[in-house]
């Protein structure tokens, strides 16, 4: 796939570019409208293309917990028959709590943690099946209220039955940015992992008490532009952190439902590093 096409799709999914305008630009890059229509399914997430995460060693259920203005919906997954476990808040991309992020939540649980995948769109009726609608609704969330709802999720996990009170978070894309925000805003957080997420205001970095891990795709120029300033601020504040940049891979390289951007080798390496960090900080 031409990198210019992947970059265009990234711009479309992270801006106010309309679908009509996106298809016009895609047709120009592809050479025709017919080819653009053929390419589109390769760019969009396909949940049918990835196997559902299954494990006999975990349980999962839909739950709610109190938000600041009503209940927040979430998927809760945990290992069977185990206690005194660390907990992980899983933060979705800008499409909402979709099947891919539910699978990620279950995957965290299978590694020996209590995992909570929160639906940030709960105040707006929950995640829709239409991803374009999901992106539209994400833009309508009140940023401060959304942050407070995630902080409520962390508090829920600190008190959850079977947990040991230690809590971390991991987020992807939009959720990666939220993971960084939680690190800034929750001094009790043990660890925060951000996959290709926007960096926080460098003036706030000194507030971070958690261990930080960041995973970036080497081709992701949009997000990577903020790395140097964040890196310098983390060093200046003596924060415990690691930054990993995976050469030759794109934004969303961990998402196995995105065929043109998923990179299995980078995803496995980043996941292994993430779980190792959780085990060292949350056990």
Structure in a nutshell:
The protein has helices at 3-13, 19-30, 33-43, 99-110, 131-138, 143-158, 174-185, 221-224, 227-236, 264-282, and strands at 58-66, 71-79, 85-91, 114-118, 163-172, 191-195, 211-217, 241-246. With 283 residues, it is of the alpha/beta class. The protein has an eight-stranded mixed sheet with strand order 1-2-4-3-5-6-7-8, with helices on both faces.
Task: Please specify the SSE layout and strand pairing.
Blueprint lengths: L2 H11 L5 H12 L2 H11 L14 E9 L4 E9 L5 E7 L7 H12 L3 E5 L12 H8 L4 H16 L4 E10 L1 H12 L5 E5 L15 E7 L3 H4 L2 H10 L4 E6 L17 H19 L1
Helix pairs in contact: 1-2, 2-3
InterPro entries: AB_hydrolase_fold, Dienelactn_hydro, Dienelactone_hydrolase-like, TAT_signal, YqhI_dom
Protein name: Carboxymethylenebutenolidase
Mean pLDDT: 93
For the largest beta sheet, what order do the strands appear in spatially?
Answer: 1-2-4-3-5-6-7-8
Radius of gyration: 18 Å
The shape is globular
Domain YqhI: 2-27
Organism: Pedobacter mendelii
Pfam families: DLH, YqhI
InterPro entries: AB_hydrolase_fold, Dienelactn_hydro, Dienelactone_hydrolase-like, TAT_signal, YqhI_dom
Index terms:
283 residues; globular; 8-stranded mixed sheet; single chain; alpha/beta; TAT_signal; AB_hydrolase_fold; Carboxymethylenebutenolidase; YqhI_dom; 10 helices
Outline the structure in words.
Helix 1 (3-13) packs antiparallel against helix 2 (19-30) and helix 2 (19-30) crosses helix 3 (33-43). The mean pLDDT is 93. The longest helix has 19 residues, at 264-282. This protein has ten helices and eight strands. It is α/β, with parallel strands linked by helices. A hairpin with a 4-residue loop joins strand 1 (58-66) and strand 2. The chain is globular. It has an eight-stranded mixed β-sheet, sandwiched between helices. Residues 72-280 form the Dienelactone hydrolase domain. Residues 2-27 form the YqhI domain. InterPro entries: AB_hydrolase_fold, Dienelactn_hydro, Dienelactone_hydrolase-like, TAT_signal, YqhI_dom. This is Carboxymethylenebutenolidase.
